[in-house]
Design a protein that fits this description.
2 copies of one chain form a homodimer. Chain A has 7 helices and 3 strands. The first copy, chain A, is mainly alpha-helical and about 150 residues long. Chain A has 2 domains: about 1-110, Winged helix-like DNA-binding domain superfamily/Winged helix DNA-binding domain (Arc Repressor Mutant, subunit A), CATH 1.10.10.10; about 110-149. Chain A is globular, with a radius of gyration of 19 Å. The interface between A and B is large, with 52 and 51 residues. The structure holds a DNA duplex (30 and 30 nucleotides).
Amino acid sequence: MRDQADTKDLSVGAWTKRCYFAGRALMDERLRPFDLGSTQWYVLWYLVNNGPSVQRDLGRALELERATLSGIIATLVRKGLIVQKSDGGDQRQRLLTLTAAGEALWRRIPDLSFIHDAAFGGIDEADLATTIRVLKSATERLQTLLRKD
Amino acid sequence: MRDQADTKDLSVGAWTKRCYFAGRALMDERLRPFDLGSTQWYVLWYLVNNGPSVQRDLGRALELERATLSGIIATLVRKGLIVQKSDGGDQRQRLLTLTAAGEALWRRIPDLSFIHDAAFGGIDEADLATTIRVLKSATERLQTLLRKD
DNA sequence: TTCATTTCGTTCGCTACCATACGATAGTTG
DNA sequence: CAACTATCGTATGGTAGCGAACGAAATGAA
């Protein structure tokens, strides 16, 4: 909403979009040499920090739909970075595990926490707290609206 | 990043994502009976408020890449809601105009401004201002990083 | 005028995301 | 036990979004 559209009345919604996509784009930029997308990176990140996991937990943690996650996992499997094997337990679910190639790739990937620092690091603590509070309540209101309407 | 991932240290980035997707999902929910996506709605909204426009202006206003907008416009043309015709001026650009069907559809669509109101309406003005300021500076820092790195 | 550069839109190939429907397995209740 | 229900993952088909490459048209410089 730039140009002839009024820049002045950009809503918070517009800024959330900008902020989200800017962050994603920055991650994608950094990950491109490794042929990895930002969401793929999050999956690896989760497996590195939580060990072998089932798709259900991964989906809940990253807040992705089952169908979405299925596609992403298929991509990672195709790349040989993770494997799905069913352990002895629930036969519906498959355990996701990093392959040696996946672990090797992870070691080569730079730390992406600088993205968060770059975006919010130099901002006053009180401002940050306010922002989180506002976004949190906004999100919760929207999600309430979504659920029971 | 819920569940066994620590909920407590959810970053602003995580809330931005949630907030953005919650808003989009809510719009999509409302627009589904009309077989319209939220971004498609924004295109119609722009044309209603700005009259026949060229793709360039639309893209800048909605902050969409040319390639992205091309696809969206193709969809809307296929649905018969808008048409592309080249006026006498610059032969590279096409003028986008609502069809009668497009205008008729627009009249049937409910006002979606309530989404913004529901999300941010009841929040203290000072908080809102702070939030916008923080998100704005965060975005600008990220985009600066993206451009020259 | 000619040539180089820029701009506008399209096309292609890809990831991400969701809704829907489906099959298979688990759990529950009669 | 059988039948119902819930859950997990997959497959399909659609929109959204971007990068890269392209042709066409406009613009600027030699």
